[in-house]
Write a structure and sequence with these properties.
Blueprint: E1 3-6, H1 12-27, H2 33-40, H3 45-53, E2 58-64, E3 67-75, E4 87-95, H4 104-118, E5 123-129, H5 133-141, E6 145-154, E7 157-167
Parallel strand pairs: 4-5
Antiparallel strand pairs: 1-2, 2-3, 3-4, 5-7, 6-7
Helix pairs in contact: 1-3
Length: 168
């Protein structure tokens, strides 16, 4: 059972660890060590603390016995998109593998959509790695549609991501 709550600045260290662990668990095998290390270095205590204190951000954290195992981050759009109205970006959506397939991602996505609506967004944007078929199917199940392509940088390595949007 995952205990869900809104994250705050005191969760910065837990989210640094979870962000690094979840990205490495999912994608670490795809990159040269120096590119992965450069990307992971971008997740800092200071950066997370600033985002968690910023009212334009919303972060939901899931914990099991006090250990962070999942999170989603909503923020103002920075992807190269052309919103049709007020928009929000789903910057990160991660659930560690031991908790896959148990409905937890659905619980977290329900929070994402409800929070976006509560913030008066008319659409949600995200980017997803082109070869992350599981995530793409998950987002499509919620009505996200392809909206373009994006070069997602991991160190000096450019991944091809698909931009997706969900009209609300």
């Amino acid at each position: 059972m995952i205990d869900w709550r809104d994250a705050g600045p005191t969760d910065a260290d837990a989210l640094v660890t979870l962000a690094r662990d979840s990205f490495t668990e999912t994608f670490g095998h795809l990159y040269r060590p120096q590119d992965l290390a450069a990307f992971l270095a971008g997740h800092t205590h200071e950066g997370w603390t600033a985002e968690l204190a910023d009212p334009t951000y919303a972060v939901r954290i899931g914990e099991v016995e006090g250990r962070a195992v999942a999170y989603a981050k909503l923020a103002p759009p920075k992807l190269p998109i052309e919103p049709r109205g007020p928009a929000i970006e789903l910057r990160q959506f991660y659930l560690l593998k031991p908790w896959h397939g148990q409905g937890h991602a659905d619980t977290l996505m329900a929070w994402v959509i409800a929070t976006a609506r509560a913030r008066a967004a008319s659409e949600i944007f995200l980017s997803v790695f082109i070869d992350n078929h599981r995530a793409r199917r998950f987002y499509q199940r919620y009505g996200f549609i392809e909206a373009g392509r994006y070069a997602f940088m991991v160190g000096d390595h450019a991944d091809e991501d698909i931009l997706m949007r969900l009209p609300l």
